[in-house]
Amino acid sequence: MARRKKIYEGKAKILYEGPEPGTIVQYFKDDATAFNAEKKAVIEGKGVLNNRLSEFFMTGLAQIGVPNHFIKRLNMREQLVRSVEIVPLEIIVRNYAAGTMSKRLGIEEGTQLPRPIVEYCYKDDALGDPLVTEEHIAAFGWASQQDMDDILSLALRVNDFLSGVMMAVGIRLVDFKIEVGRVFDGDFHRLIVADEISPDSCRLWDIDTGQKLDKDVFRRDLGDLKDAYTEVARRLGVMPKNAPPVTKPTLIN
Ligand code: CDP
Q1: 204 conformational bin, left if phi > 0, alpha if psi -120 to 50, beta if neither
Q2: Ligand 1 neighbours (beta carbon < 6 A)
Q3: Is the pLDDT of residue 107 over 80?
Q4: Could you give the 3-state DSSP secondary structure of residue 198?
Q5: 209 & 120 share domain
Q6: Helices (H) and strands (E) in the chain, counts
Q7: Are both 103 and 55 inside the same structural domain?
């Protein structure tokens, strides 16, 4: 089997060179990390679930005209995506206070915000992804004003889509993070949603019970992370109820 060239290995995914120019194979690992990788574990089957869930969200987004990098799923752990030039920002959208916003501003977790609030963090693990303002982004040239307008519009469209999809299955979308990247067409570029959308990067609470169905289960030792993600997938009809967990990935050539 031909060895593929590894382009990048992150905390939860590995990127390999894709079969065609401009494509990348995104491999979902079972590794879970929190608090900037201070807490680590291997959760068997998490990669399989996130591969399917990210496919589900990205496909739905494409259907309503929100451009994103997803091309097709290749196997249980891998998907083919468009290669992009990642904008070095984590774009966070919040509908309810939680996590760092609650800590920073002293707002009780679960408080509904007056409107969706979009925050930007500079993508740098060594710095712990610090919160930045649009002033920093413009001054340091991380994104242009046009990029920022497009990013805001993409983030709010993803929020409306995900909130609706989740509400339909009794889940509250508290907050989430996306990343965006540039695709080039001659001298022009446009921005598309990249990376992943999964319970690793969202806060998802059961509407009736408040039960957490996202990575906070791992961060805060609230139970079995795999069960929580499986519940999200089951409600969305993404994985057949009794599908056996697949732990041995088949790598493509
Ligand atoms: O997750 P944490 O409390 O550290 O930070 P947050 O700013 O409250 O996170 C807001 C949302 O963005 C949560 O759904 C996180 O899971 C997500 N996030 C992420 O996926 N990756 C990061 N590096 C930071 C936040």
Answers
A1: beta
A2: 90, 92, 98-101, 129, 175-177, 201-203, 215
A3: yes
A4: coil
A5: yes
A6: 6, 14
A7: no
**Could you tell me the residue range of the domain that residue 109 belongs to?**
85-236
Does position 249 have pLDDT exceeding 70, yes or no?
Answer: no
User: 25 CA distance to ligand 1 centroid (A)?
Assistant: 24
- pTM more than 0.85: yes
- 147-178 pLDDT, tens digit each: 999 999 999 999 999 999 999 999 999 999 99
Q: How far is the CA of 62 from the centre of ligand 1 (A)?
A: 24
With residue 189 as reference, give the H or E element that holds it: strand 188-194
185 and 62 assigned to the same domain: no
Atom 1, ligand 1: residue with shortest CA distance: 99
Confidence of residue 239 (pLDDT cuts 50, 70, 90): confident
CATH of the domain at 46: 3.30.200.20
Answer yes or no: is 112 within a domain.
yes
94 and 147 within one domain:
yes
Asked if residue 111 and residue 69 are part of one domain, the reply reads no
Q: Tokens 């921005």 appear where?
A: 191
Q: What is the CA radius of gyration of the chain?
A: 18
CATH code of 208's domain = 3.30.470.20
Q: 3 pLDDT band (50/70/90 cuts)? A: confident
CA of 110 to the centre of ligand 1 (A): 15
